[in-house]
Amino acid sequence: MAHAATIGNLTERLIGSITGLPSDHSLVGSLKDRAVKQLKDSSRGRTNPFEINERFSGLIEKFGVLNRDDLGEALESRLDLLPKTRWTPEFLSLLLQLTDRPWEHSRVESLGQLRRSSIQPAEPTWEEIVADDPLTDDDIWDDVERGYHSSGDDVAVDDDSNSEPTTSTQATSYNEEDFAGLARLHIVQSDATLLHGVRSARQALSKEWSSNGLKVHSELTVIREVLSMLHGLPTYIFDLNPVNSAVGITKRVTTTTASSIVVHDVLVQFAEIGTRLNFIRQWLLGKQSKTHLQSVQAALQQSMTLLDSHIVDLERRYAQPQYDCIVSLVDLRREVEALARPTTRLSEIIARNISAGVGEMSPFALLDLLYEESCIAQMAGDEELFAVVARALLAGLRTYLRSVLDWSLSGTPPSKDGEDFFVCERKRDCELGEVWHEQFALRLLPDGSVCAPGIMQPFVERLYRMGKSRAFIKLLGQQSEDETAGSTIEHEAPDFVSITRCLESSPLISLGDLLRASLADWMATLSPATDLSIKRLLLDGLLRTVKALDYVFLGRDGTLLQAFAEPLIERMQRLPETWDDRFLLTRLAQSTLGTAPGVDAHCINVGITSGSKVFTSRPFLQQLDRLKLTYAIPWPVQNVTRSKDLPTYTAAFSLLLQVDFAAHLLRPQLFDIRELESGCRDLARGLQTALSLRTRLLWFLDALRAHIATTAATLNHELRVQLQAAEGIDAMGEIWANLDKRLKSSLMLSTSLTPIQSAITDILRLCESLADVWPLLLNGAASSEAVMGVLEDFNKTLSFVSAGLRGVSRAGGEAMLEALAESLQYRGG
């Protein structure tokens, strides 16, 4: 009855507001009866409460998207305080239908103007209820079957189902056609007390969240905070450490669609990603002194810009959706993790490079780490990571190759980043004869490796020689082909596009092999004729020098050597105290040895080493050691020979000079026999022994001279052939050093053959001893026993020399020594 009175009152007020008629007008009563009857008899559909809740949730999220969080929070808090009745969905549905862009017209300040009415509505009386709906109808007390059009509520249904059936309903309760009645018999009433524990736990948990500051937000709001944080912007949920740019969570939040634990874990993962991205941003803001690191910074900046654009696309998807999408924080984490994975991996590489020790770290450690990561990403098939890391690697490598290009084309180390270049200028003002080996040197790290990226290690030696060749050509006063052409050739380093194209066409080629092949091809285009230019400029002068040394030191023309030796012996015999005038001896050598073809007489010089002078009747062999013949060779050739004085050739000339002097001492003895008397048998036996010794000594000297001439001719021929086939100064230097070592060993001038050399010197002194004994033997002042002693010494020394040469040849010595040992097996008469 109260419900009918309320409907009547509301209907009367509705008629008055629509028609404007006063309540005492005659038409109001008829209109009211018709309207109330129509409301009672008309059927209507119930409002879906779940749809109303979803529409309000969508409206709250829309407030957040449109930056009206104040309206969203106010609406959400008031919906929670709204009492839950069966008519609440109806009220809310009406409000939704009456809304007109509330985000533009509504203000939170207007809520403060709302006041609760102080006038209490009057309770209806029975007179008013009976007056609106009289109880005079005849069928008012009949039983009515409640159905779809029933105006009773759910409580009435429940009460009726639990009541005892009346007399009028007992006959129809079990009628098979009365489905509603049959359904009521099978309804099981729920026990409301079963949910008391759940409700109490929820209330306790809600109190705990409130005490811990846990705040509920929509997922769209949290996503907006996350995306802002990934951009490096300050947010409400996340906190940014100003020292290391680490991201932390400052507010404990949750969402209506996920548990607080899940939301917290997801936010922690977002914070880790944001920390690594901020680390990259902070590193990009730092100033790098090395040019290759600046290029790596530029490449990483491009990657960060691309990542920011992807994050903007995610923001646009939620702010201006073009299609229906699910707002999910977990799905966003998956997408962001996939997008930021290459960049976060780069942050780990940079952090590893920074944490390494500065003293032990190579200046190109970051490039080496990027190269290793690129190879790993390629082998793992991670195309996204490979694209980002390889772009940074090749950007830094290309910048580094510019300084390498300048060194290869100019022969000058770069002024910028010179302390990190693989070439250092060791001696700026070194002598020209040492410029190739002493001016520049490879810069080494503490571990012994060259200061260069790991990928460049196989090419360092070649680039080092290429730059030195350019500097050497400049000192020679020559121009390279690039300089002659006006530097019209543009050299470029391999770029990422060409390598990517090669990888697409041949995916089985590894990045390392492709880089090495590209660098090799690039180096071939720098200056393919550099080594040939050096060879062409040096070879002619070097071969002339070899020919001149053969004439001056090794007696290629025996007449010239004899023309120098005979005046020297005559001067030593005639002026034993003043024979060692180096100016006169130099003039003598220039006038004799300097007349050979290809020999520059002004380059010949004779020096006398200082020492005590012990004058004897024939101090030839002792004094000849003080004479040092030298030949001034051009400074370009000195860079090949690594010496100005050529000590091996000087020692070989001294040996030849001693052999000639010894042979000269033995020549006049044959003509002295004519002065002897024919009756002295004892004297004849001594002379016979002396002549036999003289013959054997002359045989030994001839064999030794032939060995020197043959060895010199053979080795000089090999030297000329190998020099013509050499490539570059280093190869020429190795050939020269090898041939010089063989010459020293073949002529028994090396320190390992000192005993054999001393034995040969003893035999030469025996020639001098025989020359001293011969006049005494002729005058009868010496007996044949003295000559026999000299002969025995010769036989012993010769056996020692022969055995020593055979031992050296068996141990892998030169073939010329074996030939000399075989020739000395013949005793010479």
Task: Explain what you see.
- This protein is mainly alpha-helical and 829 residues long.
- It has 33 helices and eight strands.
- The protein has a two-stranded parallel sheet.
Q: How would you summarize what this structure contains?
A:
With 829 residues, this protein is mainly alpha-helical.
Under the CATH scheme, the architecture of the largest domain is Up-down Bundle
CATH class of the largest domain: Mainly Alpha
Number of domains: 5
The low-confidence parts are: 145-175, 481-489, 613-618
Number of helices: 33
Distance, first to last CA: 164 Å
CATH superfamily of the largest domain: Gamma-tubulin complex, C-terminal domain
Q: Kindly report the average pLDDT value.
A: 80
Shape descriptor reads rod-shaped
Instruction: Tell me the CATH topology of the largest domain.
Output: Four Helix Bundle (Hemerythrin (Met), subunit A)
Radius of gyration: 57 Å
Major beta sheet, strand line-up: 1-4
Secondary structure tally: strands:
8
Instruction: State the secondary-structure class.
Output: mainly alpha
Helix content: 55-70%
Report the major sheet.
2 strands, parallel
